[in-house]
Amino acid sequence: FGSWVTFVYQLDESSASKCMDYAYNEGVNFFDNAEAYANGKSEKLMGNIIKKLKWTRDTYIISSKVFWGGEKPTQRGLCKKHINDACNAALQRMKVDYLDLFYCHRPDPDTPILETVYAMNDLITQGKIIYWGTSEWSAKEIEEAFKLCNDYNLRYPTMEQPQYNILHRDRMEKEYKSLFKKYSIGATIWSPLASGLLTGKYNDGIPSQSRFNVKGYEWLSEEINNTDFKKIKEVGKIAKSLNITQAQLAIIWCLNNKNVSSVILGASSIGQLKENLESINIYENVDLKIINNI
């Protein structure tokens, strides 16, 4: 369950708590966050909620990501200083002793990958993180990280977090293909519904309360101009023929990729979350031939 855009901007603590509690009770155990989400406020919100819900630490997985921590040079990127500072800040905001997963939110062309790899290895050694990974790194950059880890006897990256959905597929299916085969890394994909586009609710325009109108995320609305709504409407027809929702079909499509470890859901209401999680129960009802046709 992810907090990107929704926490703080669309959900206050009470609403977010209800969503997290519902997800947890339905078997969701991975909760995704980042220092950049709502400028750290998303992590504070999640930390407050987990503390109040009194979940035991061995029953959930929590993540953070490092790259965009502020405007100053020492608050950005993947240098050892910022990685260390960002991890400590995330621990404090989310009120935990360690992070299960810690991602490099984007590649940093200004910092040698070796420095980044060493920084992540040190955090593992210190017990502050369990696993480290990348998000939206190129296959070449991930390959270099693995080579450096091998050369210097450091901990390998364990997971990548790419965007993956019916409309955005090349990186997962083509660029990373050899990585999955060679290293068996996990993929915790984001935006399975293409920021809601695949639900079909934006076919006739953008509602005022949509994430596409959230301040600071104007770039999302630019994607709409490049979206082929004919494809989305075709997905809708297939979903209707199966008597399921477009969102459920889009999620089931993602789950059919054997390299997907986790589909991060970004629901802004209990209703959306319930609909999305129902995908697991109807997963086997969707024929593989239909998935391949999509």
Radius of gyration: 19 Å
DSSP strand content: 5-15%
Q: Please count the helical segments.
A: 12
Mean pLDDT: 94
Strand order in the largest sheet: 1-2-3-4-5-6-7
Could you list the spans in which at least 5 consecutive residues all have pLDDT below 50? none
Strand segment count: 7
Structural class: alpha/beta
What is the string of SSEs from the N terminus onward? HEHEHEHEHEHHEHHHEHH
Distance between the termini: 25 Å
Main sheet makeup: 7 strands, parallel
Helix content: 40-55%
* Shape verdict: globular
Write structural notes for this entry.
The chain has 294 residues and is an alpha/beta fold. The protein has 12 helices and 7 strands. It has helices spanning 13-25, 41-53, 80-94, 113-125, 139-152, 170-175, 177-183, 218-224, 229-242, 246-255, 270-282, 288-293, and strands at residues 30-31, 61-66, 99-104, 129-134, 159-160, 186-189, 262-263. The protein has a 7-stranded parallel sheet with strand order 1-2-3-4-5-6-7, with helices on one face. Helix 5 (139-152) links the parallel strand 4 (129-134) and strand 5 (159-160). Helix 3 crosses helix 4 (113-125) and helix 10 (246-255) crosses helix 11 (270-282). The mean pLDDT is 94.
